[in-house]
């Protein structure tokens, strides 16, 4: 049931985005190539072979996008820094890019001038390509020191103004999609080992950066360092079945616990160690494919998070499923479970993202119980659409945000320590291997128009109302918000249609007319040749 009420005073409302997905300017002003630049330039890796070369042109539109943030009346903006933009090869000793550093300085200053708090992620997947080529990226332990140098440079250059740092955004996807399935950059398929190894190095790197901040910068800068972990919720198909309950627990531990358990409890979840260890032994391996932490490393890693960032999108029903013994190992067969969805769950966009708000409250309560009720910021939560034609009246996104934000309110009443919410995302943007075919934005972008104009969807108006009311004061008011949002989007839709027509006409003028003109000249030349031949 829906719960009417408001959030505590001082609750933070924001939106987020990431560097590669929005900035564009992939090779401008001294930026080095990232693994995503190289990956998307290979044919067949992304839907329609699209790239983030220009993305939303965010590099050139900082002031415009800050204006959108002001319109939304958000308290904070979650952005990421592109490592190769400020350190082209990823190696501090080799080269720094002052223009890149200046870009982020200007962005941070503009946000603060407009009373918007920057929450900064150091890594949203765009590893410098040189580090991938030279060392194998996150498969190599040397990344720990290279990343720590980069993090310290960021603390030095921006830490006087940035007080909320995220070391890694959704490292699960970095490890699993980058080094296990190869769906994401760098596109490696190192089945059964690659993801575990990458994650192991990422966890150690996170701890090193936290300790660096703690010893060198904290006293002077008084900021916080955390990590942002993305996880769905796993609900047992049959809550009375112990095997289904165990399978649902494994689902969470192999997603969230993989990273959160070492940081909050000092080691990988027992169930991960047991399952991966047993499957490794069945394959005849002398040691587990899941690496181990030494006693010193466990102590060093435990407690290295001032807050926990949580990304959450959807839920699955989970049941036990035994995978037969396979010579080819895989992270996906290690946890012996199958995922199901309820066909009645709304799925407005892609088939992986079902709207199941109640799963969020359960996930937040799980975190409270498992990890000692840490300080939580919701760092990513939103829904995408896959419609080909522009859809500004995004009713489904309004329902999604309303449902999921309401579950956070319920979780707060359960005693969960949530301090802020970040809607994902500010803009329609480059959606990794899905290109521009999936759109998460509160603002629509017309990517066919070279100016990449931004248009507010109905959800902008609705989210704005939630922010100004700090929640859901009463039923009548909340229903009124919905009607107003839908009225506003109809007017914007007409504006977009007119702009699209102009863009289309411009394309006709720029492409068709010169083509027709060229053809006319060619035909004239051919006719002239015939004429001269006939009269000679």
UniProtKB/TrEMBL annotation:
InterPro entries: GH, GH_1_N_CS, Glyco_hydro_1, Glyco_hydro_1_AS. The active site is at residue 380. The chain crosses the membrane at residues 511-532. Its EC number is 3.2.1.21, 3.2.1.45, 3.2.1.46. GO terms for molecular function: beta-glucosidase activity; galactosylceramidase activity; glucosylceramidase activity. The keyword Cell division does not apply. GO terms for biological process: carbohydrate catabolic process. PROSITE patterns: GLYCOSYL_HYDROL_F1_1, GLYCOSYL_HYDROL_F1_2. Keywords: Glycosidase, Hydrolase, Membrane, Transmembrane, Transmembrane helix. It catalyses: a beta-D-galactosyl-(1<->1')-N-acylsphing-4-enine + H2O = an N-acylsphing-4-enine + D-galactose; beta-D-glucosyl-(1<->1)-sphing-4-enine + H2O = sphing-4-enine + D-glucose; beta-D-galactosyl-(1<->1')-N-octadecanoylsphing-4-enine + H2O = N-octadecanoylsphing-4-enine + D-galactose; a beta-D-xylosyl-(1<->1')-N-acylsphing-4-enine + cholesterol = cholesteryl 3-beta-D-xyloside + an N-acylsphing-4-enine. Belongs to the glycosyl hydrolase 1 family. Klotho subfamily. PANTHER family: GLYCOSYL HYDROLASE, LACTASE-LIKE PROTEIN. This is Cytosolic beta-glucosidase. It comes from Leucopsar rothschildi. The lineage of its organism: Eukaryota, Metazoa, Chordata, Craniata, Vertebrata.
